[in-house]
Amino acid sequence: MADRPPDLSSRNPDWWRQAVIYQVYPRSFADADGDGLGDLRGLTQRLSHLAALGVDALWLSPFYPSELADGGYDVIDPRGVDERLGTLDDFGALVGEAHRLGLKVVVDIVPNHTSHLHRWFQEALRAGPGSAARERYVFRAGRGAHGELPPTDWQSVFGGSAWRRVADGEWYLHLFAPEQPDLNWDNEEVRADFRTTLRFWSDRGVDGFRVDVAHGLAKDLTEPLRDLGALGTAGEAALAHLPPGSHPYWDRDEVHEIYRDWRKIFDAYRPPRMAVAEAWVPGDRRALYARPDELGQAFNFEYLEARWDAEELRGIITGALDTARAAGASATWVLSNHDVVRHASRLMLPPGTGPDAWLLTHGTAPAVDPAAGLRRARAATLLMLALPGSAYLYQGEELGLPEVADLPTEVLQDPIWEQTGHTRKGRDGCRVPLPWTTTGPSYGFGPGAGWLPQPASFAAYAVEAQSGTEGSTLELYRTALRLRRKLLDGETLAWTPGAPAGVLDFTRTEAWRSVTNLGDGPVPLPPGEVLLSSAPLPGDGVLPPDTTVWLA
């Protein structure tokens, strides 16, 4: 393309190995046109915030045409822009401005399923049983005397059967919402179309891709389809009870052939495009997605799901570094994203209290002390940023935003709420629009109200309130990212022998060291110059609980 934006990532083709990548959920970031939804022009106008923060790249969650049955992950056209969010020209302007500021751009792609409004699925409905159009998806006859029962007992991630019946009596597979029919990756037309999609965005200057549900594309569709029995309701947890690679639709060995094919496309660009897998699989299986001839990186969800416990985290960190090294990849670390309760709230939940159960109480049982939650979140962030590998941040965590757990049920938009019969509240609480200013109908998100209501407490978290304020969470992130860039050297760490119980203590190089106190009481502060601390130090030679310090 003659008008392709300049590709500044060529300065370092391995930029992603220890990058800090900031996830933007576009509908909640910044609203330029006042319709209540964040948009591409709003994001472009706020890119200076990311540059000042010090991140290396932004990861853009889906901005494609969608009816928002699943927050944009129900894609009608994977090579278009939702008209409520902008145009392809707006996307080009976004990429150009990001590259001008030295930021890389990573986009979400959604290969497991489409929207039911996608032209292919509409064609399949019209064409009827046995048609070539239906072969792009997973259609099957039902069981029972009249085909009235689903073809298998497979369950949707969002609750209920993973099958939906259409007017002519056949059933189609949807591992997520009914509005998200699964594609059939045995079909060569499906594979060819996604090759086109990868080239389409790469030609427009995109530096990489985050692959949604990367472990779900390949499916065992040989007849008869297998029931899962008691494992059918266990989701990805069923993987622990089956031989590796043998689940009928999660993490099958055949999926890796797809990503080896994609890698040929990525490597045809200079520099090669990066990719990261969203694969909810055990660590040894996750490493397969991160191999250099496949996607190169995979999200480490064990770290995200870990308790605030030193021994548990140490084991997860060591294992993640070992598996990444064995795969020739770099490790990834993440504390929050668009699918989970924000870590300023989640890390305060006591053992045995699941986030779903907590959300059903609107965040009241147990009540989470915002100040204590923020202190722990800041310590967790500084620990994460000290680890070798790539750190993925979620918009708003640099402001210390807590989960908005008390959203009224009448405003909820996540399909999980309805599809589970109101037994899971869903993910809207981490998707509430960002506060930029301390006043206004949406605290600077846009000229009017946002698509989800913000609590009055958001004013104190606003960028305007924190920017330039000593000790604020925003300034902590800015300082940490600036220091991290200077201190990075190598992709290893060494645990300090003899660390007190409840303490994570490691050196990255001879130049610096990170110490986190996850215990209930203070511990001796090791000698060394304090480069940065997640909370004020008392000055009496101790490191308080829920505090991380970087030492020279």
So how many helices?
A: 16
Q: What's the count of strands?
A: 18
Low-confidence parts, pLDDT < 50 over ≥5 residues? 1-9
Shape: globular
Gap between N and C termini, in Å? Answer: 48 Å
Strand sequence of the main sheet, in spatial order? 9-8-7-3-2-1-11-10
The portion of residues assigned to helices is: 25-40%
What class do helices, strands and sheet pairing give? alpha/beta
Question: Nearest-angstrom radius of gyration?
Answer: 23 Å
Strand share of the residues? 5-15%
Outline the biggest β-sheet. 8 strands, parallel
Overall pLDDT confidence: 95
Word description of this protein:
The chain has 552 residues and is of the alpha/beta class. It has helices at 40-45, 47-53, 88-100, 119-127, 188-202, 255-266, 283-289, 301-305, 310-327, 343-346, 355-360, 370-386, 415-419, 458-461, 463-466, 473-487; strands at residues 20-24, 57-60, 104-109, 139-140, 163-165, 171-173, 208-211, 274-277, 296-298, 332-334, 390-394, 494-495, 503-509, 512-517, 523-524, 530-533, 542-543, 547-551. The protein has an eight-stranded parallel β-sheet. Strands 12-13-14-18-16 form a five-stranded antiparallel β-sheet. The model is unreliable at 1-9 (pLDDT under 50).
Briefly characterize the structure.
This protein is of the alpha/beta class and 552 residues long. It has 16 helices and 18 strands.
Task: List the SSEs and their pairings.
Layout: E1 20-24, H1 40-45, H2 47-53, E2 57-60, H3 88-100, E3 104-109, H4 119-127, E4 139-140, E5 163-165, E6 171-173, H5 188-202, E7 208-211, H6 255-266, E8 274-277, H7 283-289, E9 296-298, H8 301-305, H9 310-327, E10 332-334, H10 343-346, H11 355-360, H12 370-386, E11 390-394, H13 415-419, H14 458-461, H15 463-466, H16 473-487, E12 494-495, E13 503-509, E14 512-517, E15 523-524, E16 530-533, E17 542-543, E18 547-551
Parallel strand pairs: 1-2, 1-11, 2-3, 3-7, 7-8, 8-9, 10-11
Antiparallel strand pairs: 4-6, 5-6, 12-13, 13-14, 14-18, 15-17, 16-18
